Amino acid sequence: MTGLIRIEDHGSWRKLVLNRPDKLNAVNEAMLTALMAALDDAKGCRALLLTGEGRGFCSGQELGPAIMPGADGPPDLEAHASAYHHQVIRRIRALPLPVVCAVNGVAAGAGASFALACDIVLAARSATFVLAFIRIGLVPDSGASFFLPRLVGEARARALAMLGEAVNAERAEAWGMIWRAVDDATLQTDAETLTARLATQPTAALAKMKRLFAEGAASTLDAQLDFEAALQGEAGRTADYAEGVRAFIEKRPPVFGGHA
Ligand code: T3D
User: Fold this and answer.
1) What CA dihedral angle connects 4, 124, 212 and 234, to 10 degrees?
2) pLDDT recorded at residue 260
3) 187 and 218, same structural domain?
4) Which of 4, 59, 76, 129 is the best mutation target for the ligand 1 pocket, counting ligand atoms within 8 Å of the beta carbon and taking the most?
5) Is 1's pLDDT higher than 70?
6) pLDDT digit string, tens, across residues 77-110
7) Are 114 and 90 a contacting pair, CB within 8 Å?
8) What is the pLDDT of residues 230-256, one digit of tens each?
9) pLDDT (tens digit, 9 = 90+) per residue, 142-174?
10) Does any domain span residue 227?
């Protein structure tokens, strides 16, 4: 399918491509609506890959009429972010399957947030991450103020947000902001291979893992131990668990069926 979000179906996994390359994939309401729909529609997949067309991954919110002060006064960015960008973040985090991000070029503002919300992030060596919000007088949104300090620590998060300086992919990897920086030429195939591999793994366990990490971000050790035990109980009742143990004993590779 073509359009603002290009959807490539690969059987058990799917690739979503932000497709507005002339604006470095800046997002507007139509694009965010299409992205939300594509994320909703991906629930039956076993893994998802998000990337951008052209030389940018996503330059954040489109700086245009929809968010400009007009004759009626300033725009309502609270309502705008809540209705669009933040719904995308909620969907990425809630999807019961791993979401890989291939950052093919600059990820700025909410574009950086979209990448950081994904489960595993690969970035081309030429890619950069820019907390561009401050450059236009805004604060980090779309989860950036939540993800960034947890990934890179308070000192780096505050400096990146306050200075709006670009971080390249290799530094992002060294700081633990992303999983890996890879060569530009191999980014898409590396990301596709990784996503395809995730699509062969025990999907129910991966979905529970996402819930564990989400809960752990604001939990106590005691509560987290209880939650781990509960989800381990569920995982232990899946067909993929039975297959994993059987395959180990039979000294053969497991074949996981996905959702239990
Ligand atoms: O809506 C709400 O609820 C508020 C939420 C806000 C969340 C946010 O995302 S705030 C942050 C918004 N994004 C930005 O401020 C980034 C703006 N873009 C840039 O600073 C630069 O474009 C980049 C650093 C990302 C890349 O620079 P460079 O030199 O590689 O490319 P360029 O020449 O600036 O951009 C190429 C084209 O894309 C250019 O168009 P043109 O002149 O060729 O017709 C440029 O205007 C366009 N473009 C890039 N980013 C945006 C954009 N057009 C509209 N909106 C953009 N965000």
Assistant:
1) 80
2) 63
3) no
4) 59
5) no
6) 999 999 999 999 999 999 999 999 999 999 999 9
7) no
8) 999 999 999 999 999 999 999 999 999
9) 999 999 999 999 999 999 999 999 999 999 999
10) yes
What is the pairing mode between strands 5-10 and 13-18? antiparallel
Identify the domain containing residue 246 by its residue range. Answer: 203-250
Residue type, 215: E
Is 240's C-beta closer than 6 angstroms to any atom of ligand 1? no
Higher pLDDT among residues 259 and 57, named by residue: 57
Residues 64 and 127 placed together within one structural domain of the fold = yes
Among residues 198, 224, 239, the one where a domain terminates is 198
CA atoms of 201 and 129, how far apart (whole Å)? 30
Ligand 1 pocket mutation pick from 19, 24, 63, 89 by most atoms within 8 angstroms of CB: 24
Q: How many domains does the chain have?
A: 2
Tell me whether residue 235 is in a domain: yes
- Please give the pLDDT value at position 65: 86
Pair of tokens at residue 55: 């030389």
Domain annotation covers residue 260: no
Q: How far is the CA of 170 from the centre of ligand 1 (A)?
A: 22
The reply to whether 255 falls in a domain is no
Place of tokens 């060569």: 183
> Do 178 and 213 have their domain in common?
no
pLDDT digits (tens, 9 = 90+) for 102-111: 999 999 999 9
- Say if CB 16 and CB 37 are below 8 A apart: no
The pair of structure tokens assigned to 166 is 């670009």
- Are residues 164 and 177 part of one domain? yes
Instruction: Say if residue 246 is in the same domain as residue 189.
Output: no
Q: How many residues does the chain have?
A: 260
Give the bridge partners for 52, in sequence order: 18
How many other C-beta atoms lie within 10 A of the C-beta of residue 121? 27
